[in-house]
Design brief:
With about 350 residues, the protein is of the alpha+beta class. The chain is about 35% helix and about 30% strand. The chain folds into two domains: about 170 residues, Aminopeptidase (3-Layer(aba) Sandwich); about 130 residues, Aminopeptidase (3-Layer(aba) Sandwich), CATH 3.40.630. The longest helix is centred in the N-terminal third of the chain and has 22 residues.
């Protein structure tokens, strides 16, 4: 089976978002306007790959090309921008029998990787797929290392979501402080939420490389309702908040929920509000974005979600492996190439 992989031309780019809407394996970051924003911020070149069987599109694969010193790198998504999944997404597979679907999928990935090798010849490739992209064998068969990571998904179609919560979470939302108000707050909310996270990371001497301007630009470029900044406030003061992303059937708990020392269960109230709000709009999944750190799992698991795997696939040339090994033994400030 021959799948023709091409870089999207102008006319295909005009159709890119329709491909994103048709696939079940895409996120808001797969949209053209988000990809362009990521490329500008990461100082990378985004390449929009599309696979065709004849005239029928069978998959898309956005990649980012960048260089560090003498090394050429390909990422999907680019690092350090708080984008947790991207990678390939399949189209027009639902009516195919298993054997044909597997052959088409493998041919599409083979074609994409051949294009990357022919056009870029990278020293390093790093791809993180969405949880719905479950068959990683085409990457393994091409010599990539495949490793799982995890997120939590809460099924919003369950009848009594509150009963899935832990006892303390149920108590917090049932006995809420009536003086607290939760609302969508636009750019004001973005500035407050991202500012809190910046301050929290700075206090812990940790890196956090996005800022309110980055998120605001995303808010303004993406369709209305795709980025939703929620805040919890009391007496006109914003106590905390969450910036969510929304696509297809899923709302993503993207940024926010900074730890605080207040006497109000801000994050429980925010999560419960977001869950109900999303459910009312017909969404069926709440992705709590990350289930890899024990201290965060202790909080997120209180809502009764299921751990779900997504995957990282990587390939390094021998030269890159050697250099990365050396750099990992250096102080963090000097680890340039290995990032």
């Amino acid at each position: 089976m021959t799948i023709d992989v091409k870089e999207a031309d102008d006319s295909t780019l005009d159709r890119w978002n329709s491909f994103v809407d048709e696939s079940k394996e895409t996120t808001p970051f797969h949209r053209r306007e988000a990809l362009t924003h990521l490329a500008e911020t990461a100082n990378a070149e985004v390449r929009f790959l599309v696979g065709y069987k004849g005239q029928e599109p069978v998959g898309i694969f956005p990649i980012f090309e960048t260089t560090k010193g003498p090394f050429r790198m390909v990422y999907s998504p680019p690092p350090h921008l708080e984008v947790y999944y991207l990678g390939p997404a399949l189209l027009n597979f639902s009516k195919l029998k298993q054997r044909k679907a597997e052959r088409r999928h493998r041919s599409f990935i083979d074609g994409c990787l051949s294009w990357i090798d022919d056009e870029i010849d990278p020293h390093y490739v790093d791809v993180r797929t969405v949880d719905g992209y479950t068959d990683l064998r085409p990457f393994s068969w091409n010599g990539f290392d495949v490793s799982p990571s995890y997120t939590y998904i809460l099924d919003l179609t369950e009848d009594d979501l509150l009963m899935q919560f832990s006892r303390d979470a149920r108590s917090n939302v049932r006995n809420r402080d009536d003086d607290c108000t939760i609302r969508e707050a636009g750019v004001e909310g973005i500035e407050a939420v991202i500012g809190q996270i910046q301050n929290r990371h700075a206090a812990q001497d940790k890196e956090y490389r996005i800022d309110p301007a980055f998120v605001t630009e995303l808010y303004e470029r993406l369709p209305e309702g795709c980025v939703r900044p929620y805040v919890c406030e009391r007496d006109g003061e914003i106590l905390g908040g969450m910036v969510t992303l929304e696509g297809d059937d899923t709302i993503y708990r993207w940024q926010g929920g900074a730890k605080h020392d207040l006497d109000v269960p801000i994050n429980d109230l925010l999560d419960w509000y977001i869950i109900r709000d999303a459910r009312e709009r017909g969404l069926t999944r709440y992705d709590l974005v990350g289930a890899n750190l024990p201290r965060l799992c202790r909080y997120k698991s209180k809502f009764g979600p299921e751990p779900v795997a997504y995957h990282t696939v990587q390939r390094k040339t021998t030269r890159m492996q050697a250099v990365t090994g050396v750099y990992r033994r250096l102080p963090s400030a000097l680890r340039v190439v290995s990032e």
